[in-house]
Amino acid sequence: MLNKLAASELVLNEDGSVYHLNLLPEDIAEKIILVGDPDRVAKVSKYFDKVEVKKNKREFYTHTGTLRGERITVMSTGIGTENIDIVMNELDALVNIDLKNKEFKAEHSALQLFRMGTCGSVNPEVQVDNMLVTQNVVGLDGLMHFYQDYAFENEFSRNFTEKFPYPKIKPMLYFADWAEELGELYKDAKYHGNTATFPGFYAPQGRQLRLKAVDDKFLETLNDLGVTNFEMETSAIYALSKLLGHKAITVNNVIANRRRGEFSADHHASEKNLIEWVLERIIK
Ligand code: R1P
Ligand code: URA
Asked: Residue limits of the Nucleoside phosphorylase domain (predicted)?
């Protein structure tokens, strides 16, 4: 059969669930909140009226239930774009591949993905404990170099690509393809900005403990190129959503201001605030 996937390519568990997420198609809603930290899943689902599904494998914890009568899923992705590669492909398989026959479905289903994460700001004016919605994203992680060509161009990306001064690092640029739809839900966020996604927390984000990073001026250089904040997942979420035909938007709680050397005095309180803020907006 033309589209039939081999057992080595679409890997399933004994119960027919997708290999890493450990989920069956009926376990997820169309609206999915993605968080990095597995502990954040229960902090979100405690607001649901009812939780029907609780499953996990490795760092991927999933709770599905209803909130104000609407079905909703919250899932942890763990840290990094390599995990997002797994999350995006397996979520898409749950809705767009017939897992029994291992064939592509004729009808495409689009998911709505809401990343609710944390980040560090590189703009000295951006205050900690506030929400920042990602408009453009610079992928400095490398994942998308392995997929078919996909590049987005706008004024931000042209300026960034032209002036980015580190020839060994190849940026890939994407944007929030949510247009008026998902972005409208978050229009009153305190900040909208340009996020850079990295393959690490320390030197890749310019942190120097006992090891030197490429450049002492890394934060200033990226901020001068229009980058507002640093984190580790959004490039892959935006790019793979675009390629797979899903809608995605990221809002991160700013827990660090890297230029001022500040860290949130109570990031648990601002995490709670973020969860309530997002749930209020995505479920009417
Ligand atoms: C690093 O501490 C982690 O926190 C951020 C980064 O993207 C990375 O995953 O997001 P989460 O709080 O959603 O995990
Ligand atoms: N998450 C990151 O990846 N970087 C930060 O500075 C804070 C949260």
From this structure: 32-262
